[in-house]
Amino acid sequence: MADRLKAARHNELLEILARVESIQVPELAAHLGVSEVTARRDLLELEQAGYLKRVHGGAVKAPGRSAGRPYRVREKAAADRKQAIAVAAARLVASGDAIALDGGSTIMHLVSVLNGLTNLTVVAANLRTAWAVAQSRAFATPTRLIIIGGSVKPDELSVSGISALEQCRNLRVDTAFISASAVDSTAGVTDYDYEDAAIKRAIIQGARQVVVLADGSKLGHQALALVADLAQVDTLITDTFADKTILKELTQRVKVIVVNPATGDAGQALEA
Q1: Using the 8-state DSSP alphabet, how is residue 231 labeled?
Q2: 120-132 average pLDDT score
Q3: Is 238 helix (H, G, I), strand (E, B) or coil?
Q4: How many of the other CB atoms lie within 10 Å of CB of 243?
């Protein structure tokens, strides 16, 4: 319970910094409903992990492109928006399809809503994703699960390495669902982890259709490693949280589906 509460605080703290760029300890403590001692400890832990920079009396957002949030924090962020994105993505899957899934938090929502599909082949490049597919009761049988093998990273449980890359390059799927750390109209789709980005690039090369899933907070940003140019992406699914100016820029480059979690709207395609 204590770990879950801490993860929730860390997530909320990082969400605040994403919006306001800086915050003072008294303000943060009041917002989180904790003591200033606890707030300072949270800031210290997140700074040590590279997600922010402490300054006198508070903290500012980490300036670099390599500081992605840990999975335990990301999985609790924007859950309603991710669920709505997942529902829209599931409509792009048909019985008999072969699909590839990475290990993003939005992908876990997608696994939960792939209902009633038969003869589905799922390629998982992440142990958490693979376990979710194996345990899911949403899938109709038979479903074939292919797990990419390689080196497994703690926390993320993503698979990387030479053998994993080789397996991904030899697979051909109907649709690759890629969770994005950042999407920008000029930089394309990027990821905070170089090795994870390489796996995603290999998956994309063998996909007939590429669908990128990114909640609105990810748009207009750039991370460390290139995953795909927008020319390689068939569809981007996001939500109404996204900045309208950024959405307009993106629609000049790629088909964008925008979902509205508040109304349950399953998605409206925006045209250039």
Answers
A1: G
A2: 94
A3: strand
A4: 12
